[in-house]
Amino acid sequence: MTLLILDLIGTFVFALSGAAAGVRNHLDLFGVLVLSFAAAAAGGITRDVIIGAVPPAAFSNWWYLAIAMFAGLLTFWRHGLIDRMRRPVLIFDAGGLALFAVTGTQKALEFGLSPVMAALIGMVSGIGGGMIRDIMLARIPTVLKSELYAVAALLGAVVVTLSHVFSLPATPMMILGALLCFTLRVAAFRYRLHLPIARRASAANDQGSRRS
Amino acid sequence: MTLLILDLIGTFVFALSGAAAGVRNHLDLFGVLVLSFAAAAAGGITRDVIIGAVPPAAFSNWWYLAIAMFAGLLTFWRHGLIDRMRRPVLIFDAGGLALFAVTGTQKALEFGLSPVMAALIGMVSGIGGGMIRDIMLARIPTVLKSELYAVAALLGAVVVTLSHVFSLPATPMMILGALLCFTLRVAAFRYRLHLPIARRASAANDQGSRRS
Amino acid sequence: MTLLILDLIGTFVFALSGAAAGVRNHLDLFGVLVLSFAAAAAGGITRDVIIGAVPPAAFSNWWYLAIAMFAGLLTFWRHGLIDRMRRPVLIFDAGGLALFAVTGTQKALEFGLSPVMAALIGMVSGIGGGMIRDIMLARIPTVLKSELYAVAALLGAVVVTLSHVFSLPATPMMILGALLCFTLRVAAFRYRLHLPIARRASAANDQGSRRS
Lengths: 212, 212, 212
Fold this sequence. Notes:
Three copies of one chain form a homotrimer. Chain A is mainly alpha-helical. The first copy, chain A, has one domain (2-194). Helices cover 81% and strands 0% of the residues of chain A. Chain A has helices spanning 2-24, 29-51, 57-60, 62-77, 79-83, 88-110, 115-136, 142-145, 149-165, 170-190, 199-211. In chain A, helix 6 runs antiparallel to helix 7 and helix 9 runs antiparallel to helix 10. The longest helix of chain A is centred in the first third of the chain and has 23 residues, at 2-24. The A-B interface holds A 20, 22-35, 45, 49, 54-56, 59-60, 62, 65, 76-77, 79-80, 82-83, 86-87, 135-138 and B 49-52, 113, 116-117, 120-121, 127, 131, 135, 138-141, 143-145, 147-151, 194-198, 200-202, 204-206, 208-209, 211-212.
């Protein structure tokens, strides 16, 4: 039950991020709705196909579709509300990342996957929505470019995994994991935290690619 | 049986659209064939993986592969025939969209999905082929940019769904749905029909993105 | 057993190709690791989802993740080793292509698919890793642009298929198939071999697209 509610909230915020990216790229209404649904559903569909839970929740439960459409329409017609936020795509994206990372992990654990693999699937579920949104807009996905994106998803997933290993209560630990993930991700793009880049390697490689 | 025939015709026209896009992008023969097969099979594979019909029809039935290869070779060597059409990629794409939207809906209904979800899966099946074709060519998919693309797929899917709900005969209603979808889509790009774009929102957001 | 070992070596070299592409594109450490895992696991996940072997091997066996992470870290910190190779992405990519083409075919045969379809799935498994790597970097996948890429994968897959049809011993034939595929692919980009391009068609089409 908690799983479903958090999953639906994640669907809503990922749909908002997709819709905001669509409006910003001058898509028409239906393009915005397609991108809302794609961003909202991709993570969960990937998770469900991987763990064998077909048809995926997004196609067996009305709510996902309804919520994604509502978020898309809201963004389209009430863009004023969303414009007041400085970086709406990034913030909604961080929320979706956090929620899908924890629900993905929890659902994989319930389907009997081992804790480490459940955390990995949680991370993939969290990343999936933003990745398909960016690929559909012909951009390099945020997960590859951005500050601590996958690390944050992994942190949320690991909290849920550990709570399972130590038999802690699932609901509060899922909420804690999602909050940690969201906070780390927002702090990362607010303060431009990032992991090291292999600078000399890339310089050397650039020369290599000129040579070859 | 009708389902299989319409599916194979859809495969053929989507393969033509993929091959024509490949030739236009100066791919070599095998690149053209890969793009033919990807465009032709992606929608059906997505549909079958989602509804749990694995291995997907494209991998369990010879015909899909043979037809996609034939369409690719035909386009490659008889490009004169296709050049006489003004917009071959768009027209074949509209045909594939229409046929996969109705066969996707019908197959999902046969697998016991609810009518609304079957229509959604039909829409996704119709969109899938063109989407993977465009993503592989590093472009924003037609579905996000084009006039009434997803709306047309949904129209075809809804006709099939309603025929199921009211127990109408499946074959004529599938053909009707496909014709409506194809006509709407071709009319949309012929007369440049489209849904509204959130203009002020995008202007405001552009400012927002300059600020941030 | 041979299947698992070849699959893991393929995972390692595809992960190296993903990591090298990530370093070259100035991704940070975690971006490099995400791209390593995506390139390494995509082919096998696609194969396993298509043949119904869920959860896919990449999510049910620790080794895939560990090897992909190791390859990513190695590339990141020991880029000097990889810089000495002239075209590291292409060479590792050819190795992954060869190994996944043969293991994909063999696994599909073990799951009871027909020989022709098993070879097709082998080809898709081989192509998958490089395709997702390039799509995530917003590029046209190597398979569409490069010399004899899919042909090489198909050659490796066909060797395994024929060895199955004629009941030859699996292990040496898998190794032979992988070597043939790798050699053909490396020779193709070394000597710039490629299949014909539909030149006049593309010229005519360019005019068509200016007209329309």
